[in-house]
Design a protein that fits this description.
heterodimer; A: Penicillin-binding protein 2a (Domain 2); five-stranded antiparallel beta sheet; B: mainly alpha; 70% helix
Chain lengths: 615, 374
Amino acid sequence: MPTPLTIKDYLFESRLFMRRTVALLVMAGLLTAALVARLVYLQVVAHEHFITLSDDNRIKILPLPPNRGLIYDRNGLLLADNLPSYRLEITAEQIHDMDAVLEALGRLITIRDVDRKRFDKLRRRTPVFKPVPLRFHLSDEEVARFAVNRHKFPGVDIVAGLSRHYPQGALAVHAIGYVGRIDERDLQRVDASSYSGTTHIGKVGIEKTYEKLLHGEVGYRQVETNAEGRVLRTLLRAAPVPGRNLYLTLDARLQSIAERAFGDKAGSAIAIDPDTGDVLAFVSQPVYDPNLFVNGIDADTYQALRKDDKQPLFNRALRGQYPPGSTLKPFVGLGGLEQGITSPHASTYCPGYYQLPGKERKYRDWKRWGHGTVDLTSAIAQSCDVYFYDLALSMGIDRLHSFLSLFGFGERTGIDISGELPGLLPSREWKRAARNQPWFPGETLITGIGQGFVLTTPVQLASATATLARYGHRVRPRIVSATQGPDEDGLTPQPEQTVLDIEIEDRHNWDVVIHAMREVVHGRHGTARKIGEGLPYEIAGKTGTAQVFGLKEEEKYDAEKLAEKLRDHSLFIAFAPVGKPRIAVAVIVENGGSGSAVAAPIARTIIDAYLRPQT
Amino acid sequence: MSSLLGGSREDASRRDWQHILHLDAVLLFWLLAVSVFGLFVLYSASGQDQDVLIRQLVRLAVAFGAMLVTAQLRPQWLARWTPWLYGAGIALLVAVLVVGDVGKGAQRWLNLGFVRFQPSEMMKLAVPMMVAWYLADKRLPPTGGRLLVAGTLIVVPVLLIARQPDLGTSLLIASSGFFVLFLAGLSWRLLGGLTLFAAAGAPILWHFMHDYQRQRVITFLDPEQDPLGAGYHIIQSKIAIGSGGVFGKGWLNGTQAHLEFLPERSTDFIFAVLGEEFGLAGILLLLLLYTFIIMRCLFIATQAQDTYSRLLAGSLAMTFFIYIIVNTGMVTGLLPVVGLPLPLVSYGGTSMVTLMAGFGILMSVQTHRKLLPT
């Protein structure tokens, strides 16, 4: 009954409120009645059923872990598989005196301190009715000894399972990674119920990145158990779905040749198919055996690995950030041409040093007496620093930064292995933000020869080289090319991730730079002419030598070590064959000395092994 | 008993302790009764852990303290500050989405340096207050544009909280706002239309749900589907309640709860422990205590002297009912698993303080009445 009154009708509102309150009470009453009806059903009608479930028959739901997917190289060679193994599990709920049981068990099987510690740790965060593993990888003898005495140990079981194994050992360990036992941190990033039967999870590398595909889906069986918790019969079974197999772009043969080419040197090499971004070899030296980590590495071995001077656990390919040195020059030169700052014929006189106008300081060329008059081609072939000081200064840091970014310098390539670092491509904004300082012209100079702030990772450098080889066609490096589910005959290719190609100003500019890189290997004065001898195809490359900065403060003085640690990093980038590139390579040898002497021969070995597999 | 239910007429001129402290003795009595009963259940559910009991006692003390403080605030004063409280709440909710801490996969907390704070808790009170404030000086029942404004006042915080994502709290806040509208006389025809609209909108909502929220809906429809994960709760809680029977297995004697149950037994699923150990009788007793609380609250609402107080009090009473029905419905397998505690019984804390502050408002409404010149 709407009224045209402007003041509120309090009596009407109060009655309205009353009516509405009654309506809500009726609704609440109905809902409560439904709840009570439900409770009567559960507690009176179906009471017997539930009391049976709760008391007599202990119905348990046991997870059935899925088999982890296997990993193959591009030719179907097995890199990671699953081997049968036995583990001993204890269900705390069924044990009255844990210490006594453990002591008795210790007489039958070996229980080390680490096993005991891990067991105690796991036990604290596992519900008492769930089994906790005490020992992994029981020997046949131990299995037999326990089987005979099993009746003395209610609540203790031997469980057959599969354990991850890497048949190729350390090969490509920094790409493949390894699995390890699930810890608390892992549980936070996965759905705990789908891992309820799983003991291991990918910790690093592809094993971690592709965890979701490799793991599969958990199954379960509903079982009836006796009072001791032993399974009497299975009531219901839902099979697990095994994880998917992965096929890598890696070529195990090439990988092995590349790793051996390093000898005992530390460093990294990445080989990429420039058409697809397929990573053909992923080297980070030295390596370690992933099998050590699968069931818990012992403390001494782990400490030895950690304290090793050469840091075998460090993934140099993804996380090593090195100054690119002279390997940056072809990119800087190309930038000069494409931005119209220089031309292929413009030349510079190199007296062996360079001075900023009006400044005293001399920026030295690596060749003290200078290269004389050089154009872009000879400046790249002979790696003249002065030419690039001059060009970098003309370009300025802003244009240098914008052009080099096109190749992906200073950002992650997005390769499908987690943990990649972005390197650093300095700019005015970066320096303002990171150091709160303006940019100085001298810093532009040294950026032009790949020194100073600029840092690249081996993966980034290889990716940029591939982009150069393909005239600006960019691809995202990838290491998994296809997957295969259980019961699938064929392979499912991984979707390709496209990156925006670089817009080319003049294709001729790229010809000039690629020709200059060819001269590095095949020219009379090329810095890497040694590796060009007797080649049936042509390589375009560029040497680099990156200065290592002084010792860190905490490091102790040690004459022998110091000498090696102070040596320059040796770099080489290359692609081949010139004209129709099939492989692009970046090699970095830590403290290797000059690029031509150490890194270039490794690059040639890799390229040779790929282009001429029969030799 | 009838005097405890609150049939007697209050005399505002009487300066007894209720009016000095601004407390409603009847409501206070039933709240304390539920709390004490709850402590018994919790002691058993926690595996007779005295630390848990002590921590819960401290929380109860803080919560009743919050009630005491809120009860001192005059409804007129509350009304004046309502828009500010609501505005600040919205700002904090936006802040939480931008800079909030992530706990258990959801962004709910705002770190103020010295204390972590959940703005959605504050909105449980601010939203019904705001809607009541907005409608209080308008002619009722609200129609047209006013309904639209009121609806927006509810929907905005609800969506912000659902995005955190916190399904339980956004549901509570939506219903608290809705109750204000309904009590203000929202037309039945419109209500029917909205229901149809909601039915049509469900598929769209599904589209925007997080995976874990969808999982809960699926698990509700077919708990057996995920017996290792979410479904395990429901299966086990049904067994616990069902095996309790009419009189239960006795205090501290629940086998199901102590052997096979999951960690939530002292928090969201504590109702199952009650059902197993005290049986249907114990559950009915608790439900009766809850009913007394709700009846007393609705009585206070009908006695309120202005529209703002009346709408707010009614909404708070009904929101308390929603708490209970959603939690018990969840534990008995009637409703989806929405993370709401059983009020005053479940272990744990922040929501209890808000809840008791709400009862403080009700007490304030009851004890700040003026004598009307009749």
